[in-house]
Amino acid sequence: MSGDVPVMYSDTGSVDLRSTMDIQITALEWMPFGDGYLKYYPDTDEDVYLEQTQDGSLIVRPEKYRERVLSEFDYPLDQVYHGENELLLRLKEYYKNCWALKLHDPYISLIITILTQNKTADSARKTFHRLQHHYKGIDVYKMASADKKELEELIRTSGPYKADFIIRCSQEIIDRWGGSLEWMRTAPTQEAREALMSLYGVGPKTADCVLLFALGHSVVAVDTHICRVSERTGLSLATGDSEAAKRRVKEDLERKHRIPGMAHLLIINLGRDFCKAVLPLHHECPVEDICPKRGIRKEKGLGLIEE
Ligand code: SF4
């Protein structure tokens, strides 16, 4: 969708920065800092700060980066779903001020997604920021020849074992594709997905995140949270979050509901804000009146939990 929707900078007055920064791999280059977010730009060797004020305006420091930062905002999420599912239409309206950020460099997306594996987004953000500063901007060549012990220490809080993933998959990208993943942008989705998954340390969800957030393929990246919300809302009839259930959820969302990849951010938002694993906030939820709440039962004294 990047490039399809002309965006004037003034349009970003509708941005809800918190939800925009929370849920997409593209946003994880921004690290929470004070009341806003910090991003390192390797080409100028500077940190840039972004904050939203009470009245909704966006502050960028240093000011000279304003246009560059605002140009990273691509389109609001109310432009991502054009089907007829009532629940998704409701979410599209509710999260209309959450913005998709511009497509990412696929190698950077890959490294950030590896850092998020089994870790929180905040942990990955801090680790990525540290890596960027240490290497003055990472790239496939720097990472392929990185000192393993040093890298393990730099990424310790996101899982030191991932140093092996990062070094080996970077070496593979150089050996097999001349150091670039760009060819995957125009390759058939399944071919690109299989190629990514053949890299050391890359599983289905990591591959789907890179395909979606960096390469423009319309895929849904399924994780435990997507499984939970899809089951409860009836978007999928799969149960649990086994690998078989994840495949079923992916098929239901991509084929049955024809959800364009970026629309799955609506489901992630719902899970994060209301449909929590424990004690979901039904009474505040924007889809409460149309949600079947599959797999949920009343548990005395604990509120509502999963069966
Ligand atoms: S109503 Fe409850 S179960 Fe349904 S989506 Fe909202 S929080 Fe989840």
UniProtKB/TrEMBL annotation:
Keyword ATP-binding: no
Molecular-function GO terms, alphabetical: 4 iron, 4 sulfur cluster binding; DNA N-glycosylase activity; endonuclease activity; metal ion binding
Nuclease keyword on record: yes
Biological process, per Gene Ontology: base-excision repair, AP site formation
InterPro entries named in the record: DNA_glycosylase (IPR011257), Endonuclease3_FeS-loop_motif (IPR003651), HhH-GPD_domain (IPR003265), HhH_base_excis_C (IPR023170)
PANTHER family the record matches: A/G-SPECIFIC ADENINE GLYCOSYLASE/ENDONUCLEASE III (PTHR10359), ENDONUCLEASE III (PTHR10359:SF18)
Protein name stated in the entry: Predicted endonuclease III
Organism, scientific name: Methanocella arvoryzae (strain DSM 22066 / NBRC 105507 / MRE50)
